[in-house]
Design brief:
With 211 residues, the chain is mostly beta strands. The chain has one domain. It is 11% helix and 37% strand. It contains 3 helices and 9 strands, in the order αββββββαβββα. Strands 1-2-3-4-9-8-7-6 form an 8-stranded antiparallel beta barrel. Strand 5 and strand 6 form a beta hairpin. It is globular. The protein starts with 11 loop residues before the first helix and ends in a 5-residue tail after the last helix. The structure holds manganese (II) ion. Manganese (II) ion binds next to strand 2.
């Protein structure tokens, strides 16, 4: 169940980092409240360092983590996930090139998308609200994506002021496999089938951003 619209200040950090006259990224605040289960999206971002951006809809925004190696479907892989600022819901559809000199400059593709269901519980196994689980530093959920499926957990392993490190790990369940993560340079957009390179080339031809 998607929560209420985000608090007005929820996207302040996101907006402060960007010059919307120079980037085609969404300003946020115009996404209608969607019924049904909350959204997740995984983008691949060829920025100064290549990484995956893992985002879960919570309370009307996309809670976000940068995952350098990307999510893995192998429960043995513990993937570092570093929190980044909350992103607007509209960001789930963003695919294109962020102009040089701008925050996050580089190419973005939507690698996977779908919905998730919270399986968050306290250490007695009692269900707890997902936002509360994140606050406590351990949230589990089931992904129903086009590529990613099954149980995952995000666990905070380090907190040092504003700097946090989390791990994103596949749960050992029926949806387990051992493919790991595809090579980001060869991976294709779930929206358009394009690689990062193709998106970058087409943006060069026809202007930046867009789908
Ligand atoms: Mn990123």
């Amino acid at each position: 169940m998607p929560g209420p619209a985000p608090a007005p200040e929820a996207l302040a950090v996101y907006r402060r980092k960007r010059d919307f006259s120079r980037t085609a990224e969404p300003t946020g605040g115009s996404a209608p409240e969607a019924p049904g289960e909350p959204t997740f999206v995984v983008q691949i971002h060829d920025a100064s360092t290549m990484h995956f951006d893992f985002r879960l809809e919570v309370d009307g925004v996309l809670k976000s983590w940068a995952v350098p190696k990307g999510p893995s479907d192998d429960p043995h892989d513990k993937r570092l996930a570093v929190p980044t600022e909350d992103h607007p819901m509209e960001y789930a559809d963003f695919e294109g090139v962020i102009a040089e000199g701008e925050y996050g400059a580089g190419t973005v593709i939507v690698w996977d998308e779908g919905t998730y269901r919270s399986t968050a519980a306290d250490h007695h196994g009692r269900q707890i609200p997902f936002d509360e689980a994140l606050e406590h530093g351990h949230a589990s959920f089931r992904l129903n994506g086009r590529k990613l499926q099954g149980g995952y957990a995000l666990t905070r392993i380090r907190q040092d002021g504003d700097r946090e490190a989390w791990l994103l790990v596949k749960r050992d369940d029926a949806r387990t496999s051992h493919h790991g993560t595809p090579n980001p340079s060869r991976a294709r957009s779930v929206h358009t089938g394009r690689t990062l390179k193709q998106v970058a080339a087409q943006a060069g031809e026809g202007g930046r951003g867009g789908r």
